[in-house]
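Hello everyone,

My group is preparing for a crystallization screen and wants a predicted model to guide construct design. The compound we'll soak is zinc ion. Before spending weeks at the bench, it would help to have a computed complex in hand. I've included the protein sequence and the ligand's SMILES below. Output in structure-token form would be ideal because that's what our pipeline reads.
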Amino acid sequence: MTDQPHDLLLAGTLTTFRRRCGKPGCRCATGDPHETPALRYTDSGRTKLVTLTEADLAEVTAALQRYRAARTALDRAAADGLAALRSRLAARRATGQV
Ligand SMILES: [Zn+2]
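Reply:
Good plan to model first. Here are the tokens for the complex, ready for your pipeline.
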């Protein structure tokens, strides 16, 4: 089985995870911390991080965009549904039906 990255959906934001590894001789002890790309997401109200590699970035970025597009389409459909419900209720009231 191969992965199907075109179907992947991800909700969250890309961020950079910075850390000091703790090795005394490492450049991060005195200089810049190590930087790793990461996906930040919320699970049951808690923020969590999944660390990524540079190789994951394109796939994760595409999956985040797919999720945003799908959510936008769903929000638009829900707004249309609300408008349809409102106009149906208004029409029913106007004709005196309950
Ligand atoms: Zn280090």
